[in-house]
Amino acid sequence: MLCEEYSWVDERELNYDNYGRLLYHPVLHPNHKKPYTESELEYLCKYWEVDGMKTMGMAMGRPEHSLATKINLLRKDNLFDYYKNLNKHW
Length: 90
Known about the structure:
There is one protein chain. By secondary structure, this protein is an all-alpha fold. The protein is about 45% helix and about 0% strand. The chain has 3 helices and no strands. The protein starts with about 35 loop residues before the first helix and ends in a 6-residue tail after the last helix.
């Protein structure tokens, strides 16, 4: 169930992957395929373990799979800790 802010979205329109992650929806994910800003990267890394994928996906307007993919790339490139400790925007 979506939060009250998106209660007007018909839940029958929503699709989920095999892991229960909400797939792209144009209304709920307006930032899909847009480049990540430095502020978004800092927020993502700093609160990933606190807020979780579902909450962050809704907050950032991006699909959950997109966030998980970005986290994996940042960790692979050794940038996760850099953005987590940036303390510039968050």
